[in-house]
Amino acid sequence: MPRFGGAPKCHACEKSVYMAEEVKALGKVWHKTCFKCNGCGKRLESGSESEHDDKPYCKNCYGKRFGPKGIGGGATAGCLQTEEGGATISKFKNTNTSSNKFAAGSQEKCYTCEKAVYAAEKLIVLNKIFSQDVC
Fold first, then answer.
1. How far apart are CA 134 and CA 113, in angstroms?
2. Mean pLDDT, all residues of the chain
3. Cα 131 vs. chain centroid, distance in angstroms?
4. 10, 29 in Cβ contact below 8 A?
5. Are 129 and 117 in contact (CB under 8 A)?
6. Mean pLDDT of the 73-92 span
7. Distance between the two ends of the chain, CA-based, in angstroms?
8. 24 pLDDT more than 80
9. Which segments within 2-127 are labelled E, that is strand?
10. CA distance 31 to 17
């Protein structure tokens, strides 16, 4: 907090911060040059940061360090995984075996309306087949 007649202190370097060089973020005051990512050191703009343990991170570093772990890792995680018995299993794997078969006589049906569902309009949710069309 500012003392009587003094400027507020930078959260990173504890030196006085004057209006021309001030950035307010995470409820604190910073120098523009001191407000940078704790992971990669990239300068941040107020509003583009994420916080962990009272330290600023860019969105990419925050995702890599503290985001979900999975294929792609961090900010680019494509699908989450779990480990069961040493084997890595995707939580989003399609376990519906009939969805991978293309047989002339067996047409898949919508779980809601029982109409035929073609591959281009098929949605699989919780191992149930639905049509994209409103039933």
1. 9
2. 75
3. 28
4. yes
5. yes
6. 51
7. 61
8. yes
9. 22-25, 28-31, 49-52, 55-58, 70-71, 79-84, 87-90, 122-125
10. 6
